Amino acid sequence: MTPILGILASSISGSKAVTNSYESIATSTLGSAQSTVTFSSIPQTYKHLQVRITNRSEFVRGSGNTLGVSTYLRVGNSGTIYSANYTWGSTFGDGSSASSEHYGTQNIMVVANNSMPAANSTTGIFGSSIVDILDYTSTNKNKTFRYLSGFDQNGTNGRISFASSLYYGTPNAITDLQFTADGNFAANSTFALYGIKG
To answer: For the domain that residue 135 is a member of, what is the CATH number?
Structure first.
């Protein structure tokens, strides 16, 4: 059986994935709570990027609500982070039902729609996300993003969501990624950036 990452690589490139399709660029594992995770000076030598995230928020949901909170992404170039013109649609649910949302232009993009555990969710539970950033070096077309994310609290509560989105902005290539959240990212959250060969 082809691994999920191999399936994603195949669908991006239109060809069969090989074991060396992905190359590690950088990994950030948080030793303490942190509000922002940034990758900068990203090499321009790949066709696409992928970020693999395992995270948890320090944000406390009110009224005993232990469902997830969101992770957000802005992109940038040469140290400038762009803060407008993101649009996306998403589908999410808890296994018993599903909802769809469509957003107009926003100043920040959701990459894990209420699918990162809140601080008052089950202790030790982290969410997982895979974020694809397509044609990130292009200077003549909009950038496309897609993600799959979710978490499970040992069967008591959980969430899964997926989306496709677009950045309508400068034609500059992407050299910087900036992740933020509802509340700080908790210690031991991990963000791993990979380049995908063309």
So the answer is: 2.60.120
Asked if residue 15 is part of any domain, the answer here is no
Q: Which two tokens stand for residue 46?
A: 């790949």
Domain count, the chain: 1
Q: What is the pLDDT of residues 28-76, one digit of tens each?
A: 999 999 999 999 999 999 999 999 999 999 998 876 555 688 899 999 9
SS3 sequence of 57-104: ECCCCCCCCCCCEEEEEEEEECCEECCCCEEEEEEEECCCCEEEEEEE
* 3 in any annotated domain: no
Q: What is the CA radius of gyration of the chain?
A: 16
pTM value?
0.86
Rounded to 5 degrees, what are φ and ψ at 142? -65, 155
CB 47 within 8 A of CB 35: no
Structural domain boundaries, residue 48: 22-196
Say how far apart CA 181 and CA 22 lie, in whole Å.
Answer: 26
